[in-house]
Specification:
The structure is a single chain. About 20% of the residues lie in helices and about 25% in strands. It has about 260 residues and is of the alpha/beta class. The protein is globular and about 50 Å long. The protein starts with a helix and ends with a strand. The N terminus is likely disordered.
């Protein structure tokens, strides 16, 4: 493990404090109720490791390192940055998450996470950040890059947004929509608590395959109709989550962060 035992035990320690003292330490944050269904990586033990395939340019590598370190604080999962297998089109790879950047065009989105599932088990994922917008001064900041990359990677673990209102009080988590990214660049205690809830049970098999065979059905990110049906909308009325049925119990979920 890359992190000290104190980091691993932090969410559990604070939960114990709350249970024994009844003191509310985080009165402005939401409760840990932000999974998207019962979707999770199948695995036989905790903590487990999710591989993040690095298909990013050198300019994005420090942000991926921050995101990886942040999510690895979790008591139930680690992340490990590995050589990317996504290639030019950022194709999904079985058993891992491919992370990519490119100039995807003036299509309205800053970042997209796409997560393939079979039944309730996550099988693979991709995260894409759009340099068409991140090259503009308003988004070419550490805060925006940290927020978007952290949020999209968080979706690939089974987390949904804690809040989708851009103008209310920031929750201090990257899983919060906001007009001001500065306070929301990293996970908060409720994200770690939600991961513990999602991964409280063990499976008899694993979807964290060690092979790199590319088994993902490609989804054209430039074509919103290819994302399937919109099943969630943000506070501005824009579709923020899509679902496409691939048949035989397989689906792909697409989470979108829109640019203003």
């Amino acid at each position: 493990m890359k992190h000290l035992p104190f980091h691993r035990s932090l969410p559990l320690f604070l939960s114990a404090v709350l249970a024994t003292t009844g003191v509310l330490l985080f009165s402005t944050t939401a409760s840990a109720l932000h999974s998207w269904g019962s979707y999770h990586w199948a695995r036989t033990s905790n903590p487990f490791t999710v591989k993040l395939g690095d298909n990013l340019s050198a300019a994005w590598d420090p942000y991926l390192a921050t995101t990886s370190a942040d999510w690895s604080v979790s008591a139930v999962l680690d992340t490990n940055i590995v050589t990317g297998q996504g290639r030019k089109n950022c194709r999904a790879t079985n058993g891992r998450v491919e992370v990519c950047n490119a100039k995807y065009g003036n299509n309205g989105w800053l970042g997209i996470a796409q997560v393939w599932v079979s039944g309730t088990h996550i099988t693979q994922g991709t995260v894409k950040v759009n340099d068409t917008y991140f090259n503009k001064p308003v988004y070419n900041t550490t805060a925006w890059k940290n927020l978007v990359l952290c949020q999209e990677v968080g979706h690939t673990f089974g987390l949904d947004h804690q809040d989708e209102n851009f103008s209310n009080v920031n929750l201090g988590t990257c899983m919060d929509y906001s007009n001001d990214p500065t306070p929301n660049q990293h996970p908060n205690i409720h994200d770690y608590e939600q991961l513990e809830i999602i991964y409280a049970h063990l499976d008899t098999t694993t979807t964290l395959a060690s092979n790199t065979a590319q088994t993902g059905q490609d989804i054209d990110v430039s074509d919103p109709p290819a994302w399937g049906k919109a099943i969630e909308h943000d506070s501005k009325g824009r579709p923020s989550k899509f679902e496409r049925d691939l048949g035989n119990g397989r689906k792909v979920h697409t989470f979108v962060v829109w640019a203003d």
